[in-house]
Fold this protein.
Amino acid sequence: MNKNIFVTAFQAMPNKGSENYVGFYIVNTLINKGYNVYLYTPLINQVEIRNYFQDNLPKNLFFPKINDSIMLKIFKPDPLRYSQYISNIFWELNIKTYLKYNDFEYDLYYHINPSSWWAYNGMVNNAHPVLLGPVMGYRFPRKGLWGYLKFKSFIFELIRLLILKSPYAFFNRRKIIKSSSNVLIDGEKNIFNIDKYTNISHTLSGIDTHKNRVKPEIPKVILSGRFVDIKGYPIALKCLKRIEKDFIIEIYGSGPQEQNIKKLIKKYNLEDKTIFKGYVDTRELATAMSSSNVFVAPYIRENASLMVSEALYAGLPVVTISDTGPSSVCSFFNSNLSKISEGTGEELIEHLKKNIEYYLDNFIIENPKPTSNFDEDIVREVEKIINTF
């Protein structure tokens, strides 16, 4: 008989934002492994998942009845809005209410919500056995990068700091530690510092496409990610303007900072080199990666990076900044496929420039050699827990 897993994920849209992708990726992995997955997720996510599968909704995927509270209808699970930090708390209360009245006995209760570890308490001590994660370690902009944030983003980072260091967050962390919950850490930073919790890498795709790489006629640089301050587009463009070589820049994404990015491109006289591609699906981006020289990811604040992981799986070299989430992701892959830039200010810009020039001069085809497999590690933990209880 198939095992029944109750899975809750606040963000689980197939094609919108990294956290959504992680949530849906794990759900889909469990479905493909034959588990009966009872996915408790906001109605907006359910609609997107049904649209994704169209008329082929898996027979082992079920949606328990859910009633979004008034507050959840106001604070929706939108990864592009900062209000999601508030809505995570209301989601915690929603889960707690569901479990209180649930009379179906599941083989496992699994809460996926990568970055919102302070909002896991809806399930902790309210069900058994429980699996939480992968829980991302939190990061803040490292020294030398705060100055690239606009005022609004700067204030938001301070608010994040207050939330993560608040009594509420510390209470939740202590409650998780004292509970019998099993915890997955995403391999970047172990915020609990407890060895018993399983550490897994943030290597999501598992699709090895490096053999499909084709050298472009003109060396190509890819920039990709939401058009927001923390993605570091000003850093990348300031660096690229100094490279006196023949190359083109393709930019993928969308967001509120698009006009500011275009102004910088004009300021740095990069208009003739730059092509805006807008938002594209994963398949189209993978095709672009296969014929590019380097992916530049000067992210100011990123827990890990789905985009960097996908680039490395495609065999596309990555240039990024030290002591950031992307540099942590790079450590799980073939070291020949990444160069980590050190320093601050002008030193950092020059180091980035040097590293990008290396890949513009050398088209690399290498096996990504990931050190672990994200979905296999999760399934192994799920099976271990189910077979124990």
Q: What stands out?
A: Residues 109 and 130 are 5 Å apart (CA to CA).
